[in-house]
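Before surveying the methods themselves, it helps to consider a single example record, giving the amino acid sequence and C-alpha cells:
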Amino acid sequence: MSWFKSRFLWGYTVARRVYGEIPGYPPGSRFLNRQAAYNAGIHRHTQAGISGTADGSESICLSDGYSDDEVQGDLITYTGFGGRDSNTGRHMADQELVGGNAGLVRDYEVGRPVRVLARESVLTGRKKDSWYTYLGLFFVTQWSWGERDGYKVLRFQLQAEPLDSYTPAEVAHALNRGEDLPPLRRNTVVNRRVRSAEVAESVKRLYDNTCQICGTQLKTAAGTYAEAAHIRPLGIPHEGPDILANLLCLCPNCHKEFDGHAVTVDGDGKVYQFGEYKADLVVHSQHQLDMRYLAYHREISEGSSR
C-alpha cells in the first residue's frame, strides 16, 4: 500500500492551540472526519471553519458550505465566518471583524502561517470524497470586504508555502489518480518564522502595542498595531538572538528610524536621534532588556549619528 493511501489517520492526541505544524501529522495526512482532525490538533473545531481568536487564527477548514470559497493553483480565497442562516446557507447579516476573522487579519499583519484542512470533495469536485486532507501551511496575503446576498462578507486570500505544503491542485491530482503525493522538500524557515512571530507577539502584548520610544498606539480595523524590532539584527553578520531581551516594541516610524540607524538608545535608556536627545525609553518591569544589544546597536549606528 502506498504512503498516501496508508496515511488514513484517526488522530488520538488532545487538541490544544498551536501555531504552525503539528508533530506527527505532516502535510498530506488524511482524516476520516472533522473529529479525527480535531483530535490530532490540526483544526480545533468540528463545525467552525476558523479556529482562533482575535489575537490570531491557527487553522481554517475548507468545506462544501461556502460557495464563495475558491481554490486556484496555490491560492485559496476563503470567506470569513458569521452572518449566515444555518439552514439555508444564505447571508442574513453583515460579517464582523471579530473572533477568527480578526485573527486571520492579525496573521496577515504579523506574517504568521495558517494550517489548512480541506474536505476532499472541495478539491476533487466529487461529493463522495468525504475524507479530509491536511494541505500544510499557508500565509494570508490579502484580505478585503466583499458582498454576498446584499450583506458584507470578509474575503481572505491564502497562498501555499511552497516547501511546507501541498497545493489543492496537487492533492486533487493525487486523489483523482490514486497516486502518491510527491515528497515535500522540508523547509525549516517556516517553523523559525512561527517561533519568531510568537516572540514578537510577546513583546507587543507586554506594551499593549504601544511604542516604547514615542508612546504611539496605532489603531487598525483589526485592533491596535505595533512592530517588534530586533536591537541586534538577526542573521549574518550580526547574529542577534530572537529573544525578548533583544526586542523593542515600536511604531512603524520609530522602527524604521531604529533600523535605519537614525535613532539609538544609550546605557541609561535615553533615546537620541542623530545625536540629539529625543525621549526616554519606556521599559516594562517584566522586560529584561540586555544592554549589550543596545551597545551593539550604538556601535553599528555610530557613523549615522554624527
About this structure: The helical segments are 3-6, 34-40, 99-110, 120-124, 168-177, 188-206, 252-259, 291-301.
